[in-house]
Amino acid sequence: MSVSTEEKPTNIAGDRLRSIIERVERLEEERKALASDIKDIFSEAKSAGFDVKVIRQLIRIRKQEPAEVEEQETLLDVYRRAIGM
User: Fold this and answer.
1) pLDDT per position as a tens digit, 5-34
2) CB-CB contact of 44 with 55 (8 Å)
3) 28-73, pLDDT tens digit by residue?
């Protein structure tokens, strides 16, 4: 008995796999939309005179633990002094 590749899978594993793939596809579409929204916000910030690079740095810093930020700032200060800045 030959099974056509065009038949819909009727087993639970096939349905589960299709569901997983469709969920990932929806999330990828949402991610694209969010990335576009973020790009628009950065464009708005730039047109308002803000430095987008600095805003990105601030966002990255805000994600870190305060102790980690303090350690990095201390090292940055030490390194600056070491090179005469």
Assistant:
1) 556 656 788 899 999 999 999 999 999 999
2) no
3) 999 999 999 999 999 999 999 999 999 999 999 999 999 999 999 9
Nearest to 69 by CA among 79, 60, 56: 60
Around Cβ 42, how many Cβ atoms within 10 Å? 14
Q: How far apart are CA 46 and CA 63, in angstroms?
A: 22
Written as one string, the DSSP assignment of 21-69 is HHHHHHHHHHHHHHHHHHHHHHHHHHHTT--HHHHHHHHHHHTS-HHHH
Quick one: which of 72, 43, 67 has its CA closest to 55? 43
- The phi-psi region of residue 81 (left if phi > 0; otherwise alpha if psi is between -120 and 50; otherwise beta) is alpha
The two tokens of residue 6 are: 């065009």
